[in-house]
């Protein structure tokens, strides 16, 4: 993996002491010493692209290159880029997330959001996630495949206004079936639902529960496309998805233009 001359900002949403971010830093430091880790002091999974606008952002300096932030994952990216690094990064890496960031997960993921913030600021950015089965997390798979994926992605070039979302399958490295460039998939609706409970004072409260869909739904999603991130992971491959920040539904523009014409 060639990172000569790169000034790298590493962040995540699992927290600065999470095993995934430690592994990511270890892999990157094999190729460059210009590495800065700026991450939440505690877990912020599901924070999406939230920014702290009504609370102060506080910084705990661990050492010259490691900073724990009391704030969201996006706050971490902003603090690293604007305040904590002597110069802006030339590369932003997010993760390695404990768990998948596939399909609509990108709308909720703090891991993806930090890469998105990097892209918004013109910094080539990549988000990494290690899919797991809860019983076992194959960090060795991310370790085996991340360097070659990152090297090839950087060689190909990350276009302005885009970032790259990478997921490693929940398998040992020798069981991985390949590396695929994929579309963002879409699961059946209903992955998150409120679950009502009652506390000791008989007051109701709710947890937002993740509803894990069956394997067929996770693999196929809700469309007929076969080259999605969901299917790649279900079939044991590393998924590499280029993501653009422009959300315009261009195929609908003419329909609305016709409907909104003033007679």
Would you give an account of this structure?
There is one protein chain. This protein is of the alpha/beta class and 263 residues long. It has one domain (8-186, 215-254): Survival protein SurE-like phosphatase/nucleotidase (Stationary-phase Survival Protein Sure Homolog, Chain: A), CATH 3.40.1210. 27% of the residues lie in helices and 26% in strands. The chain contains seven helices and eleven strands. It has helices spanning 19-29, 73-84, 110-120, 139-156, 215-220, 229-234, 253-259; strands at residues 8-11, 35-40, 58-63, 66-70, 91-98, 125-130, 162-168, 178-181, 192-198, 204-210, 237-244. The strands form two sheets. The chain has a nine-stranded mixed sheet with strand order 3-4-2-1-5-6-7-11-8, sandwiched between helices. Strands 9-10 form a two-stranded antiparallel sheet. The chain is globular, with a radius of gyration of 19 Å. The termini are far apart. 40% of the residues are buried. The mean pLDDT is 89.
In helices, the fraction of residues equals 25-40%
Q: What CATH architecture do you see?
A: 3-Layer(aba) Sandwich
What structural class is derived from the secondary structure elements? alpha/beta
Largest sheet: 9 strands, mixed
pLDDT averaged over residues = 89
Globally, the shape reads globular
Task: Kindly report the name of the CATH homologous superfamily.
Answer: Survival protein SurE-like phosphatase/nucleotidase
Report how far apart the termini are.
60 Å
Q: Number of DSSP strands?
A: 11
Summed up, the domain count is 1
Written as H for each helix and E for each strand, in order along the chain, the element string is EHEEEHEHEHEEEEHHEH
The spatial strand order of the largest sheet comes to 3-4-2-1-5-6-7-11-8
Enumerate the spans where pLDDT stays under 50 for 5 or more consecutive residues.
none
What amount of the residues lies in strands? Answer: 25-35%
Q: In the CATH scheme, what's the topology name?
A: Stationary-phase Survival Protein Sure Homolog, Chain: A
- Radius of gyration, taken over Cα atoms and rounded to an integer in Å: 19 Å
Output the number of helix runs.
Answer: 7
State the name of the first-level CATH class: Alpha Beta
């Amino acid at each position: 993996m060639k990172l000569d001359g790169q000034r790298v900002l590493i962040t995540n949403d699992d927290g600065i002491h999470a095993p995934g971010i430690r592994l990511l830093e270890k892999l990157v430091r094999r190729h460059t010493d210009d590495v800065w880790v700026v991450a939440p002091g505690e877990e912020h999974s599901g924070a999406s692209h939230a920014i702290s606008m009504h609370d102060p952002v506080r910084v705990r300096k661990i050492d010259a290159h490691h900073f724990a932030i009391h704030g969201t994952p996006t706050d971490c990216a902003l603090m690293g880029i604007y305040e904590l690094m002597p110069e802006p990064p030339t590369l932003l890496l997010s993760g390695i997330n404990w768990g998948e960031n596939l399909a609509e997960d990108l709308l909720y993921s703090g891991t993806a959001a930090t890469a998105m913030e990097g892209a918004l600021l013109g910094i080539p950015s990549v988000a990494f996630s290690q899919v797991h089965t809860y019983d076992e997390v194959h960090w060795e798979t991310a370790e085996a495949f991340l360097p070659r994926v990152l090297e090839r992605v950087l060689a190909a070039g990350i276009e302005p206004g885009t970032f790259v979302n990478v997921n490693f399958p929940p398998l040992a490295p020798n069981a991985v079936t390949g590396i695929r460039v994929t579309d963002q998939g879409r699961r059946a609706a209903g992955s998150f639902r409120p679950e009502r409970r009652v506390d000791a004072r008989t007051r109701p409260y709710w947890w937002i529960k993740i509803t894990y869909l069956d394997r067929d739904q996770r693999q196929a999603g809700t469309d007929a496309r076969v080259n999605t991130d969901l299917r790649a992971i279900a079939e044991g491959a590393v998924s590499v998805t280029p993501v653009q920040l422009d959300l315009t539904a261009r195929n609908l523009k003419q329909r609305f233009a016709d409907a909104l014409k003033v007679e």
